[in-house]
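Q: Convert this sequence to structure tokens.
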Amino acid sequence: MSRRIQTGKAGSLARGALKLGTTQSDGEDYLGRVAKYIPAEIVGLYLATSGMVPLDASTGQPRRLALWIVFFLNFAFVPLYFWFATTRDNQKPLIPQIILASIAFPVWVFAIGGPFRSFPWYEGWIASLTLAFVTVAMGFCKPAPGS
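A:
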């Protein structure tokens, strides 16, 4: 399965535009877009690498600075990974998908907790609601046909 969202045939829309809430005959359906906007591979990489962060001897919690470094290193991989994933088969990069996956990654880490947990205002239930609504909303975003 390709990670690139299938946009369908080029029509009257401008190339690279994002069209919200319309139907598309041979493009990716809603659930397919939702699944392909989620940077699951990089979230998995984040979980693996953040699990390697040593604990602070005084608090017994993972070291905050190290968690932020791991977060930003993984975050930097999202657009790179999706650039390569969407340019397979000599296609142009699918910029809307790259942007939305780059937005999705910090939302997923926020929901997991990660370094955001160190903020005094962090609440897990708010993070979970944010993840749910952002993920559902992103599925309505469709790259322009022929992109």
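The longest strand covers residues 18-20.
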